[in-house]
Amino acid sequence: xxxxxxxxxxxxxxxxxxxxxxxxxxxxxxxxxxxxxxxxxxxxxxxxxxxxxxxxxxxxxxxxxxxxxxxxxxxxxxxxxxxxxxxxxxxxxxxxxxxxxxxxxxxxxxxxxxxxxxxxxxxxxxxxxxxxxxxxxxxxxxxxxxxxxxxxxxxxxxxxxxxxxxxxxxxxxxxxxxxxxxxxxxxxxxxxxxxxxxxxxxxxxxxxxxxxxxxxxxxxxxxxxxxxxxxxxxxxxxxxxxxxxxxxxxxxxxxxxxxxxxxxxxxxxxxxxxxxxxxxxxxxxxxxxxxxxxxxxxxxxxxxxxxxxxxxxxxxxxxxxxxxxxxx
Amino acid sequence: xxxxxxxxxxxxxxxxxxxxxxxxxxxxxxxxxxxxxxxxxxxxxxxxxxxxxxxxxxxxxxxxxxxxxxxxxxxxxxxxxxxxxxxxxxxxxxxxxxxxxxxxxxxxxxxxxxxxxxxxxxxxxxxxxxxxxxxxxxxxxxxxxxxxxxxxxxxxxxxxxxxxxxxxxxxxxxxxxxxxxxxxxxxxxxxxxxxxxxxxxxxxxxxxxxxxxxxxxxxxxxxxxxxxxxxxxxxxxxxxxxxxxxxxxxxxxxxxxxxxxxxxxxxxxxxxxxxxxxxxxxxxxxxxxxxxxxxxxxxxxxxxxxxxxxxxxxxxxxxxxxxxxxxx
Amino acid sequence: xxxxxxxxxxxxxxxxxxxxxxxxxxxxxxxxxxxxxxxxxxxxxxxxxxxxxxxxxxxxxxxxxxxxxxxxxxxxxxxxxxxxxxxxxxxxxxxxxxxxxxxxxxxxxxxxxxxxxxxxxxxxxxxxxxxxxxxxxxxxxxxxxxxxxxxxxxxxxxxxxxxxxxxxxxxxxxxxxxxxxxxxxxxxxxxxxxxxxxxxxxxxxxxxxxxxxxxxxxxxxxxxxxxxxxxxxxxxxxxxxxxxxxxxxxxxxxxxxxxxxxxxxxxxxxxxxxxxxxxxxxxxxxxxxxxxxxxxxxxxxxxxxxxxxxxxxxxxxxxxxxxxxxxxxxxxxx
Amino acid sequence: xxxxxxxxxxxxxxxxxxxxxxxxxxxxxxxxxxxxxxxxxxxxxxxxxxxxxxxxxxxxxxxxxxxxxxxxxxxxxxxxxxxxxxxxxxxxxxxxxxxxxxxxxxxxxxxxxxxxxxxxxxxxxxxxxxxxxxxxxxxxxxxxxxxxxxxxxxxxxxxxxxxxxxxxxxxxxxxxxxxxxxxxxxxxxxxxxxxxxxxxxxxxxxxxxxxxxxxxxxxxxxxxxxxxxxxxxxxxxxxxxxxxxxxxxxxxxxxxxxxxxxxxxxxxxxxxxxxxxxxxxxxxxxxxxxxxxxxxxxxxxxxxxxxxxxxxxxxxxxxxxxxxxxxxxxxxxx
Lengths: 328, 328, 334, 334
Ligand SMILES: Cc1ncc(C[n+]2csc(CCOP(=O)(O)OP(=O)(O)O)c2C)c(N)n1
Ligand SMILES: Cc1ncc(C[n+]2csc(CCOP(=O)(O)OP(=O)(O)O)c2C)c(N)n1
Ligand SMILES: [Mg+2]
Ligand SMILES: [Mg+2]
Prior knowledge:
A: Rossmann fold, C: about 10% strand, binds magnesium ion
C-alpha cells in the first residue's frame, strides 16, 4: 500500500479540494478562506483553483455566515462553513444550537440541515486566553449535532467526505497545533467511519481514552509505557457526539482500567461523560476507579511554560498510569 | 421563628428589591424588566418604585447589554443583568466566557467583574424546542464563573445578596416552572452561603444529588421512599461551579450510593461531572455504580406528555432508587 | 411610496375575485386567531401564543406578491403568514393543539409551523435568528440559478439584534434576492420603538447597507400590496435585497402572558379605528366589488373553516412517547 | 471636516513642545514595534503579534484629546495606544515577553495589555467584543455622574459584527459618552473593505443610529488631532456618542503569520509615501518647530528607551507554574 509523508494541514486541504471537485453543491465559506489563503493556510490556493463562488470570503460575522450556511443547506447546497477558530464559535452558537441542531426535530422531520462546520481548536501556539479554547465539551452537549474531532492525519484527510454525506449538521474540530506535523498516511477507501471511535493502539493493561491533540500524546505515552512493560490501549474517540459506547466499553471491559485524557478543562467535559458511562456500564469490571487527566481550569495564559502546564503532557500520562497500575 | 407562605416569584422580587434598596450601585437591566413588568412578572412594579435609571429596559441585544453590564461592573457599578430566558443566553455567551469570566485572570488580577447575570431556565411551560433549554452544563464548564442554581424558595430569596457581594461574575439560574409555587420561607440571616451545596433532607440509604427543579422533585421522591422504609438524602448542589466536593463526597461516603438527577440532557452534563468526581474519590465506598437520571437528548417538544417524558419525574426517581437498592 | 408610511392612498380598484380572496384571507386569520385565543383559555392550546390580530394586511398584502417557489420565513407570530401561504387551517390547528397530525407532528406548536412542501420555513422563536437563514436560502437560489426570492418577516424589535445587522450586510454584499419585511407594530413585547432604537425612522437603516428601503402603511392592504409588488419586482429584477417596513399595530397582547402594562388602552382603541379588515371591506363595498351578502357569505365560510379546524384538531392524536427521539437525527443516512 | 477624510489640510502650527512630544510618540511606537518584530523573529515574543506601523497618527492624534480619567479600550493591535496612554515601554515589553513583571504578569502578551491605573482596558482579541464594554463603562460614568468619556478603538472589519450594531444602538439610546474610533486600514486580515461592507462609506453607518459621524485622513496627524478634538469636545458637551472614522493603512502584515497574498506590493508602497512620521516631521522642520538635530535627539532617545525595554524584558522572570490558577477568581472576597 502506498504511503507518503504529509502534513496535517495538507491532509485537510486535500480533503477540501476533493470535496469541491466531487460535488458542485459544496462550497467553502468563512473569514479569510480566500484571498488571505486561510488563517492557517489550510485553504491556500483554493480560491485560485475554484473561484470566488466556491471559496467565499465572508465579513467578520460569525453568527451571520453560519446562519447563512444553515439556510444554504436548507436550500440544497452542501456548505462547508469555516469558523476561523473555535474561540469565535460562541458568536455562532445560537445558530448552531437553536437552528442547525434543532430544525429537523422541531419541524417533525421535514427539514434536515446538511451542513459541515469546521473550526480550528485548542491550545499550543501561545495565543493566550481569548484564542486558546478547547470548547469541544460545549458542542458535545448539544442534541442534534454530530461532533467530530480530528486527532490524526488519517481523519484530517478522510473525515470531511463522510461528514458532507451526513444529512445532519456536523461539527469538525481541527487542531492548530498539529498543522505542521508530518506523518505517513495510508489511503482509506470510502472514507473513515464517522460513527465509530477507533483503537489507535491495542493493549491489555489500561485504556487511554482521548481525542484531538490527545491521540498522538497518548501514543507517545503508550510507546514509553511499553518500554516499561505496560501495554496501554489507545482509544481515539473521534466522535464526541454521539459517543460510540460500544468501542469504549469493549476496551475498558478488556483492560479493566481507564484513564481519560483531554485538553479541555476538567469540569463538565467529555472526560466526565466518558467516565460516567464507564462507571455506569463496567463498574464491576473495573480494577481501579476511572481517572481523568484534563486541562487546568483557567483561562489559558500566554507564556509557553504555563501553556504547557495547562494541558496534560505525555509524561504526565505515563506517570499517572504507572501510579494507577501500581495501585491496582 | 416567623414563617409565611410565599411564591418563588415573590422571593425573587423581594431579593431584587432589597438589593436595589441596599446599594446605590445596583441596577437591573434587561429586556422588558421595566414597562412590561418582567417577562414573567418577577420585576413587576419595580420600575415604578425605583425609576428608569435603576430598572433599565434594554432593546433585544443580548450580547450588547450583557457586554454593557460587564463594562458597567468594571466602571464600579453592581449591575444585575437579566437575560430574559436561558434560551437567548447563547447570544451573550461570548461576552460571558471571553470577557466576564476571563478579564481578571488575563489582566493578571487587575480587573475583576462584579456582575450578576440572572436568567430564567428550564422546561415545563410547553414552550417547545427554542424556549425550553436546560443549558446549565454549558456554563458550569467555564472557568472564572460562579454558577448558581435556584432550586428552592430559600435560595430564590437569599442568593442574590451574596452574589452581588461576590467580586467576580455570578450566573444565577431561576426556573420558570417554579414561579407560581408557594412555600413557607424561613428567614436566613446574612444570606445563604453561595459556595456550598446544601443537604435538603438527611438520609442514610442513598444520596440523591440534584439542583434546580430537581430539588423539590427529589424531596417528593424521598418522601415516598420514606414510606417504603428507604431514607434518601437529598443534596441540592446549588453551586454548579465551582462544585462543592466536600458536601457531595461526604454524603456519598455516608450513604454508599448515589443517583444524580437533572433536567439537562445527559451527555456532558453536571451529572456526568458529579458522577466522575464521586467515582474518583469514593470508588471504594460505593455499594453500587453511580447512576444518573437526566433529560432526554432531544430538542424539547411542545406537547405536555412529551415535555413530561423529556425530564426525570419523581416517580422515576423512586423506581430507579428502589431498583438500585434491591440490586445492592 | 409614502416614506413614513402613514397615509392611506387611493388606489385603482382590484379585480373582484382577487379582492374577495384577499378579504377572505384577512378574515380567516382574524377568526382563526380569535378561536385560537378562546381555545387557549380552554387550555387546548398552551405555551406561548402570539396573535397577529390587527396586522393582517401585512401578511396578506406581502404574500400576494410571492410565488409558490419563493421561500417564506416568519417569526413566532406566524399563523397569519402560514394561512396565507396556503397551509391548511386544519393541520395548523392540529399543530397548535400539539397533535401528531399537525405540520410538525405537534412538536412545534404555535411558534413553530413549518411546511417544507410550501417552502414555509417557520415559525422561528429566537428573535432575528431566521434572518441569516433567509440570506442562506437566497444564496442557495442564486448559486443554483433558481429564479426565486426569499421573503423574511420580522418585527421592529428584531432589528436591534446584531443578527439583523449581519444579515443585512451579507445580503447586500452577496447580492442575494431577499425581501426583508419589517412588521413594525411599535412594540417588542412591552418595549416601545423609542426604547428599542435610537433612530426610529427604520428605513434609514437600509442606507447603512446600501439596501433600498421603503415604508408603507401596514394597516392599508392595498398600500401594502403596491409596496410589496414594487419590492418583489425589484428583488426579482436586480437579484438584490430590499427592505420594506410595514407600519402596523397589534391589537392584542404580545402573548397570552401579557398584562399590557406598557401602553394605554386609548392608544389601542385609536389604532383599532384603523382596523385593516373593515377598512378594506368598506372600500370594497363602496367600490361595489362586494355586497353585504358576499361579506356574510365570506364570514360564514371562514367560520366554518375555523370550526372545522377545531373539530379536526380535537379528533387528532398524540405522538407516542416512544417516538419522541425520532428525527433528532435523520433516519435515512445517504 | 473632510467627509472622505483623504485630504491633508493646512493647519495652524503647533506649540513646539507639543509638536515634539507628538512626534516622539509616533517614533516610539514605530521603533518599539520594529524591535518587537525583530524579537519575534528571534522567538523572544510569540503568539500573535499585530503591528500598528503606518497607523501611528491615529493613536497619537486621538489620544491627545483624552484626559487621564477617560477610559480607553483597544484591540489586539494596541501597542501604540498603550504607549501613548503612558504605559511604560519596559513593562509592556516584559508583558510581550510573557514575563511576570509585565502588566498582566505575562499572561496576556501582545494582544492583552491592561493597566487599570491608567484606565487602559485592553488589549481585546475578540473582534468587536470590547465595544459593548465601552458602552458599559460610559454608562457607569453617566450613572455616577463622573465627567469623563470612554474612547474605544476598533478596525473597519469589526463593524461587520453584530456587536458593533448593538453597541452603537445602545450608546445612542442611552446617550452615553463614548468616542467610537474606527481605524479603517482597508483590510480585515486579508479581507478588503469592499468584501466586508456592502456600504463602504463607513460614516453612513452612524446615521442608522442617529450618531454624529465624521471621517478624517488618518495619515495626517494634525487632521486627526483636529477631528479628535472636535469629537471629544462634542462627546463631553453632549454626553452622547460620536463616531470617528480614521482612514489609514497598515504597512506591515496583519500578524506575523500573514503572507500578504491579498494586496499588491505597489499599493503598500503607495501608502508608504504617506507615512505619517516623515510627513509630520517634515512639516515641523519646514515650520521650524524642529531642527534636524532635535530629530536626531528624538530618535536617539526613542532608540534608547526601546533598548531599555528589551533589556528590562530580558531581565524579567517567569510566573511560577504554581501560580497559574491565581486570579481565576478574586483572592479577596468582600
Ligand atoms: C433572542 C431573543 N430574545 C428575546 C426573546 C423574547 N421575545 C420574544 S418576542 C420578543 C419581542 C419581539 O419584538 P418584535 O421583533 O418587534 O416582534 P413582535 O413580537 O412585535 O411581532 C421578545 C423580546 C426571544 N424570543 N429571542
Ligand atoms: C470574533 C472574531 N473573529 C475573528 C477573529 C480573527 N481576526 C483577528 S483580527 C481580524 C481582522 C480584524 O480586522 P479589523 O477589525 O479591520 O482590524 P485590523 O486588524 O485591521 O486592525 C480577524 C478576522 C477574531 N479575533 N475575533
Ligand atoms: Mg414589534
Ligand atoms: Mg482593518
